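HUMAN:
Could you generate one sequence with tokenized structure?
ASSISTANT:
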Amino acid sequence: MRTAVLGRSGIAISEVGLGCMTLPTDRAEAVRIIREAVDRGITLFDTADLYGQGMNEEVVGEALAPVRQRVVIATKVGNRFEPGKPGWTWDPSPAYIERAIEASLRRLRTDYIDLYQLHGGTMDDPFDEIVALMERFVEKGVIRAYGISSIRPNVIRRYLNGSNIATIMMQYSLLDRRPEEWFPEIEAKGVGVIARGPVASGWLTGKKAPKPDDQYLGYGAADLARAPEILREVAPDRTPAQTAIQFSVAPRAVCCAIPGASRMEQLRENAEAGALPPLTDAQMARLREAYPAKVYTEHRPA
């Protein structure tokens, strides 16, 4: 497994991590998958307090407790929920975050969080107060670094220019190249991109057949059907999923990708992507030609 650095934090991580949101609901199996990931060299595990209303953090905490010093745990805050009630509301207030981090620490069975991320963000949030609170968390040793999970360029730029965020989590894949417009600005600040959704909700794995009316970010069924075939043609020595993951970690601004896994076989396939040779410049050019980059049309800086 190749290693990388978690943005400006200096924290060493595996180039391919594990996005824990899609772990199976069977707790024992989820724990087995996480521990298998550790055995295969994965060191970054991403969760959120919202996932399963805290249950996902509990599973991650249980699985990683025996190896806590060897792994990097990332979680998120801001989506407020009431246990046992459906739905959630956006609450980035410092008062709520103060309570939420204590609950996350308890569920994760740890006294510190490696990367604490704001799970979204708007231009109406109390920005200065949030940043001040995160900095206090760092000073107290409750967190090692902080970041945001956002695809809103105006919010991203605000944090790039006004905080010490280490990372920005963004949906990024062959089918969603919108973040590339902002990579130079992100890289110039020394911030790392965590690529979520590198297999585009399964459309890039070759194991999901599109129906005539299926759509993904403006791509129709024909575009979705040919994507795995192009990935196979470009890199016949690996699976479409592995090539898709490698595409997502190729830009210099990206420090890691966090594909999910609901089955042990998925986990093993994804982990192997971090050990295979990187894609060549020619292979990357062929993929970029097949699916040109689009841009975000909303929430752009004024």
User: Anything to note?
Assistant: The chain has a mean pLDDT of 97. The first strand starts at residue 3 and ends at 5. The chain has ten helices and twelve strands. The two ends are 41 Å apart (CA to CA).
